[in-house]
Amino acid sequence: MNNTIGIDVSKDTLDVHRLADGQHKQFLNSKTGHAHLIKWIELQPDPLVIFEATGAYHRLLERKLGNRLIRFVKVNPKQARRFAQASGKLAKTDRVDCEMLAKMGAALQLVPKPLTAEILYDLRDLLCARRALIKDRTAAKARNATVTHALLKGQLAKRLRHIECDIAKIDTAMLALANQDRQMRERLDILSSIPGIGVTTALMILVDMPEIGGLDGKQVASLAGLAPMSQSSGKWQGKARIQGGRPNLRHAIFMPALVAIRHNADMKAKYNQLIAVGKEKKVAITAVMRKLLVLANALLRDQRKWMENMA
After folding, report:
1. Is 202 within the bounds of a domain?
2. 3-state secondary structure of 42
């Protein structure tokens, strides 16, 4: 499998390595640079592009590749670094990184994700902005609790009103955008039928885990980072812990899990059962979060809404 192309994404540039012939190129991380890059990538038949998730820096590249139906795999930077170290490459430069990404894609036979619908890119941008506003609101509230000067109090109150207004506008825009797509609208209706999951949380789930509905229960738990990982060596037996996965998704379903424990009989029974055998509250809540996502996946798979006593 030598059709892989590794791309190291930075703020200003894209360093590219083509495994087939070892060629290295550098393009600007801009619309013009992406146009030249896409043209160069399409010179190779059936290319597979490998790049690291780098937040805002990779999003435009991901969108351009998807629009051109070019297969790609977005990898965790930690996994990419571990692969490089295991390969004996301790140096870390843009040129080395893109080469290692190409080799990683070939050696591990990485499988590309299904191409993302255009609407999901717009929803993802809106959701990213919403999360930034939530952080701003949290910081402003913390600041407001400590200041005493009347001027500062007034400014913070004004800032909080603006933030709430901006969040409301984004929520409205996200819902309007989702309603434009029939499949997205149907999936949204199914998820929001589950007690504890409102429209905003349903949108977060669909954006953060677009694969949901096409997975099995174990895959859902693993992707969300809600699958317990055993810790043992020889006779030593440690506590199983959750790790990895998609933290934004876990944050999105934490509060819905608490609501479900109160208002969903099956979720409440699961929680009480774990507490009764001595499990910590956070372990029991994590189990409910996992059960909630598995339920959401099953409903989307079967294309049916939630009903009592089906969780």
Report:
1. no
2. coil
